[in-house]
Design brief:
With about 300 residues, the chain is an alpha/beta fold. Helices cover about 40% and strands about 15% of the residues.
């Protein structure tokens, strides 16, 4: 199986690359500056040259606040890029696994979102991802759109690494407590994506469509931060003495966040046999690697 991966340098992309070294398939990792999904010619040439069995799109513009002042770039990457990939996949007769987000929802629902719930994004980032989903569905019949949330890992910039840094710098950390969601760890999501790819490779008759995948169990940013610091104390002395819950209105940002974006993952369990991993287990492993392991990225 040959997998073309767009966005190999991101949190998810790096985990997919790591897993490719442990599994029997050929990964074709691509990313900026050599490969730009906003360039339709480059996308088409890459698909024709590499002749992959399946394409995974892990490339995205994820700077939620910056997107408010840079909508052109956000839509180019999150809407146009997936459309170009889907068009090239359709021409080549191969499927696409595209990664989307909980931010396609407005967060007003009080129960976990299912795949068929109406989308209603409230910011540029969410709208750009929603239009990317629509573009993929229009161009391609065989696709998996995987919505995920609160992605973290040992790579790049993310909430876990931010809290660990602050815990060593400040005696008090203030964290929003009225936004709820599900932390997802890149290694777990990468395994789920590859499970889907292998299922397609072994059995072309698969249930295409939109699926949700996130860490099992919901939390708030405040409780998430408390758990990060609790795990960190096992490995080093922490400067932070207290974590203070605050309201969203006390921490204004350019982009409005959905107050409740918990995703229901029962469909991916039912149709694809994929069981989301509890986020606390994955967090414990991530903190251990960052503070006690040998990772230096």
């Amino acid at each position: 199986m040959r997998i073309l991966l767009a966005g190999c340098n991101g949190q998810l992309g790096r985990e997919l690359c790591r897993l490719s070294e442990e599994n029997e398939f050929h990964l074709l990792p691509l990313d900026l500056p050599e490969f730009d999904i906003t360039d339709p010619k480059a996308v088409d040439e890459a698909v024709k040259k590499e002749k992959p069995s399946i394409v995974i799109n892990a490339a995205a513009y994820t700077a939620v606040d910056m997107a408010e002042s840079d909508p052109d770039t956000a839509f180019a990457v999150n809407r146009d890029g997936p459309v170009y990939l889907a068009s090239s996949c359709a021409e080549a007769g191969i499927p696409l696994i595209h990664i989307s987000t909980d931010y396609v929802f407005d967060g007003k629902k009080k129960r976990p979102y299912i795949e068929s719930d109406p989308i209603s994004p409230i910011g540029v980032y969410g709208r750009s991802k929603a239009e990317g989903e629509a573009g993929v569905r229009k161009k391609l019949d065989r696709y998996f759109i995987i919505r995920t949330s609160w992605l973290c890992s040992v790579h790049g910039k993310n909430f876990v690494k931010t809290i660990l840094r602050l815990a060593n710098e400040k005696e008090e950390i203030r964290v929003v407590s009225d936004q709820a969601g599900c932390p997802t760890f890149a290694p777990d999501l990468a395994e789920a994506i590859l499970s889907i790819a292998f299922r397609y490779h072994n059995n072309k008759d698969v249930p295409w469509g939109i699926y949700h995948y996130c860490g099992r169990g919901e939390t708030t940013w405040y409780d998430f931060a408390k758990q990060i610091v609790e795990f960190a104390r096992k490995y080093q002395t922490i400067k932070t003495r207290s974590i203070i819950p605050i309201r969203t209105e006390d921490y204004p940002t350019p982009a409005v966040r959905p107050p409740y974006s918990v995703l229901d993952c029962s469909l991916i369990q039912k149709h694809l046999g994929i069981q989301p991993k509890p986020w606390k287990e994955s967090l414990a492993e991530t903190v251990k690697i960052l503070l006690y392991g040998h990772f230096s990225g």
